[in-house]
Amino acid sequence: MSSLVKYGSVFNTGLQNTFVYRWNFLLRSLFGLVPLAGTVFIWKALFESRGEDIGGFDFGQMIFYFLMILLVDNLVTPTEDEWQIAAEIREGQINNFLSRPVDYLAYRVSLFLSARLLYTALTILPVLAVFVWFREFITLPRDPLTWPLFFVLLVMAAAIQFLIAYALAMLAFWILEISTVVFILYSFEYYLSGRLFPLEVMPGWVQGVLVWLPFPYELYFPVAVFLERVQGAELWRGLAIQTLWVILCYLGARFMWHRSLRRYESVGG
To answer: The whole model's pTM is what?
Structure first.
């Protein structure tokens, strides 16, 4: 109970701090819709030139796919968490947590959840407005079990993204600037998470490799399940792999923290 009160207080503090930047979040969300407009024009041109489905998607399904990617991205993707953690390490603020009975990972999770809650509250109306605009392309799941399953997949997708960002930030204990490493990893993530295009458009052998990597489970897999494009044995296999990646990312984040602390203390931190 004391832990819930403690991290609940951190959550409330995070809400207050994040609210200071509410206009930044709102403007980021609004301008984040601009690439969606470009995406619609590009795919429309592709479908008109080919005159056939692409990767098993018709034009309407493709638009709905990118609408769901936009929604899921707003709900689960961390916003500058790795940069904030790295800054706390570089500037020595991490010492405040080493001398207190605070689990730093739980502390950062509380801040992440508060930021996601407020960010979603501020940006959900523009996103919903886009859904209304493209409502002719929206087809809701027919199976009622898809809805709770989608929620579970969203939670795990958020966990994977946050824990990867957290583990990356731990590199600040070793190197002064982590931006290069972050850029390299996020470049792979951008292409392989389904943000740029559905993974069905990639060659079969590439899809066979990707199914074992964490990237598709950050965005593509929850969306594909909601669109009911993944069902049966393939669905349960994906769920098992996503769960495994949550566990591995958690263990990796813990490992990086403990290794980082040992190095920090050994050099006189």
So the answer is: 0.88
